[in-house]
Amino acid sequence: MTKKLLSGITRRDFLGGVSLATASGALLSPMELMAKMGTMPKEYYPPSLTGMRGSHVGSFEVAHSVSWEGKDWGRPNDQTDDVYDMIVVGGGISGLTAAMVYQQKQGGGKKVLVLDNHDDFGGHAKRNEFEVDGRLIIGYGGSQTIDSPGFYSPEAKQVMKDIAIETDRFYDYFDMDYFTKYNMSPCLFFKQSEYGEDKLIRNALEGASSFMGDGPAYTKEQRIETIREFPLSVEAQDSIIKLLFEAEDKFPELSIEEKVTKLRSMSYTDYLQQYYDMPSEATELLRDRTKGGWGAGADALSALEGLNMWMPGMRVYGDVLEAISEEEEGEDEPYIHHFPDGNAGVARALVRKLLPEAVPGTTMEDLVLSRVDYSLLDREGSDNRIRLNSTAVDVQHTADQNHVDVVYVKENQTYRVRGKHVVLACYNNLIPYICPEVSEAQREAISYATKIPLVYTNVVLRNWRAFAELNTNRIHIPRERMVQDYYLDFPVSMGDYKFSENPDQPIVVHGTMVPLEPDQGFSHKEQAIMGRTRLYQYTYEDFETSILDHFDTMLKSGGFDVERDIAAITVNRWPHGYSWEYNDLYDDPSFTPYNGPHIAGRAQIGRISIANSDASAYAYVNGAIDAAVRAVNEQIAL
Fold this sequence. Notes:
Layout: E1 14-15, E2 18-19, H1 30-37, E3 51-54, H2 61-67, E4 84-89, H3 93-105, E5 112-115, E6 127-132, E7 135-140, H4 154-162, H5 170-173, H6 178-181, E8 186-190, H7 192-195, E9 199-202, H8 220-227, H9 234-245, H10 256-264, H11 268-275, H12 280-287, H13 291-294, H14 303-308, H15 318-324, H16 344-354, H17 364-367, E10 384-387, E11 390-397, E12 404-410, E13 413-424, H18 431-434, H19 440-447, E14 452-461, H20 465-469, E15 474-476, E16 485-488, E17 507-513, H21 524-537, H22 540-554, H23 562-565, E18 566-578, H24 597-601, E19 608-610, H25 621-636
Parallel strand pairs: 3-18, 4-5, 4-13, 5-10, 8-15, 13-19
Antiparallel strand pairs: 1-2, 6-7, 8-9, 11-12, 12-13, 14-17, 14-18, 15-16, 16-17
Helix pairs in contact: 3-16, 3-25, 10-15, 11-12
């Protein structure tokens, strides 16, 4: 069923109450609006923008003109600003960390400029804000959670301490029992277009069931009974039941080393089809469980990685996992270190450290509701300046090798700034196109990896009574090519910000999409490139129409009404999303964050160093921080 588009959500973005529509009705991008309104007025506040966010209109066109079309933007004769001590290209967590650490190591008082192509700082750490019935609702539009901070390097732990983030406090702020109180568990939604009927069923593939894994447990008999309700053939149902309850070591005659080789040689999907006679209609239900952590389905991950992720049927190889697991210093931690705006909280803490007057407050708690004054980010005379909507197009040393000139484009005008040092904390694969001093060998090393496309949507509900009625907090839609997973937001209350206290209050439903082309024989990398191409073709209206249809059908029996209950939708599109992490089904098994092509790809080029999570081959906050510290150390050693 096709629903009409929601009025008030889709056609207009608002910037501090100023419509982006002109009097004639034509829509302006945030960059175009800023050109008309002047740079960084008081009203400038990107977190409140809805519609298509993430890589928004105005953030990528200049970069594409350079990388896709080979456009030469020229080099202005006049230099903008005085000489900076350091210029950082990229205002994500890695770039902001580089700026802060450089000031610290140099004793402060240095002149630092951060350039970023987006209309907001933070890179993938994106904050989305909504006002629903007079209540502020905060969501995350990208980088999600501070994962396992106990395992961070000493340098990354120090950065967190320096920006006043104490991760132990999240044990007080994250309500790990929240969904258990409502007897909620994950569900599968089988669409009529794919399975002949619309059917919402508890996900019996999970052993227990809240999002945190500590929900109600179900007996073997209950799980089998539920699987028999799946709209699949009896053959498919039988194969799933066999995998869940009759799994066995398929290679008892092999040594542990031989088992490692064997499991690494095939995808988890191939393993299921070959050793459990599982038809594709059954493997599809398991395939996409790995997307959230890997940006890849089980058809593009090895059976060995399936073991590492404790996928169904793999616990029988516990001896193999024990043999290949590396001991790390630290204690296992729950997945709870989450600001209401995700890792945008980390980015805001870094900006507060660089520009205290722009981000009022002093604690991680007051950071949540602190309103950033964007007009103070790029203020003349400030030691630290953050210049948004500015895309670097040329980065190279001066003739005497004593400085680096950075040419950037802002509001379709070209500018040139000069610095004693430069850190490139931007999208890694773009670097060879904007830095002509990258050698051919380094260019090849950089091009080895690709980003994984990703979409994070935030659907803001006036209430979540339908979810409560259906006893579910998370829904997965098999075979869906648009948003495939929806779940109620993380239950985090910090400072004066309170999470939804009951089903009659507003809440964010987070939706994810990893656009790939599974089960067609393509490698992980090939799927990512194809998925990115497909993602660029989708409009905001395509997402909105699909989301409305999902909510209309999967929650109908809970009394949900899309016109009444949906207050806003924001789509955070990241065609260049997750950083590439080595995949042992396709990459050399010896490649790790400590060894691989990315090491040569991040090689220092005189006064230019490279810092981003791509350069760490690790798509996490500490990967970005560690890369920044390394890059700064390279430069101050000159």
